Amino acid sequence: MMNSSRAWVQQAVRKIEADFNRSADTHLIPLPLPAYPDVHLYLKDESSHPTGSLKHRLARSLFLYALCNGWLNRGSTVIEASSGSTAVSEAYFARLIGLPFVAVIPRSTSLEKIAAIEFYGGHCHLVNSGREIYGESERLARELGGHYMDQFTYAERATDWRSNNNIAESIFSQMRQEPHPVPAWVVCSCGTGGTTATIGRYIRYQGFDSRVCVADPENSVFFDAYVNNDNTLELETGSLIEGIGRPRVERSFIPSIIDRMVKVPDVISLAALRYLEQSLGRRCGGSTGTNFVAALHLAREMHVAGQAGSIVTVLCDSGERYLPTYYDDAWLAARNIDVQPAAAAIAACATRGDAVPWTLAQHPAPA
Ligand SMILES: *Cc1c(COP(=O)(O)O)cnc(C)c1O
User: Fold this and answer.
1) Cα of 196 from ligand 1 centre, angstroms
2) Ligand 1: which of 171, 192, 196, 325 to mutate, most ligand atoms within 8 Å of CB?
3) Domain boundaries 55-156, corresponding CATH code
4) Which of 197, 257, 259, 262 has minimal Cβ neighbours within 10 Å of its Cβ?
5) Among the atoms of ligand 1, which is closest to the Cα of residue 192?
6) Domain at 15-48+166-357: CATH code
7) What tens digit of pLDDT does each residue of 318-335 get?
């Protein structure tokens, strides 16, 4: 005989699958770099998911994983440690299946994200720093008898990396009719590391020659952990680029999948948003700027080496969430960030082929 909790899990899974069935895939947008006509750049636009970021895919996977593991039941409170975007998406799925949701987020999280979490019926539990979200989530889960979803541990394993229209399968099938259907590089940045894990595994599984480049911001341990093969590193300060860069080496970060890492200064990432706004006609979030800087760097490297091909990177979320921060001159000035010179250099690099006046730390050094 089937108990009522199994029946509840079945209908919850069905609701998530039906929601997926109603959804469309996200677009792959070409972004020409006039100075490098033989290198074709594409952005996978994850901002077009119902909850506005690539975390929509992750939240769906995490809920299905938890449900099918028997970790969630009727009335379970779902708790998540997040810098914001995952909590927005998880609040959406919690509401879809009728579960209460608590987001444990740093006080610095943008008001837009807090409003979005609350819009989907989630409760925001603010902590002082990004380092406190993990322990506080564990404590709340114990206190409330709830389930701590723990994206930073489970992101890499909750997604079906072989298929099931994951982000990698979607990118490679959308590339099929392009002049260079197998990208030379796929450029990601890491929050959990889950997206990079899915893409890197899929590439090996399918036998593609594409390489994975990860762009890391300042105030993140990932780059140094990769260079020194050290997963014990920790930092005090949080990343200015929301969604990416972590103060500890998360378990979903899998260095062996990464072919190269590039460290992008925050001012350059934020300056790239200005170039993207002009060339794409869209405002993007900070991590998309970080991704774009690494992609531009690789495009120029390919061009200089006489190599034709394609590069795919991720448009992680929209800039509308960051109008009072990255797009606000007073906010930038208060942090002594002057994006104008770097924005001009990025435009000159992309449109005229000029070298940029900075070097990015990278590992391993290009052959
Ligand atoms: C989470 C996130 C990323 C990185 O994705 P992961 O799969 O978690 O590594 C990039 N940009 C934004 C805005 C994010 O929220």
Assistant:
1) 9
2) 192
3) 3.40.50.1100
4) 259
5) 8
6) 3.40.50.1100
7) 999 999 999 999 999 999
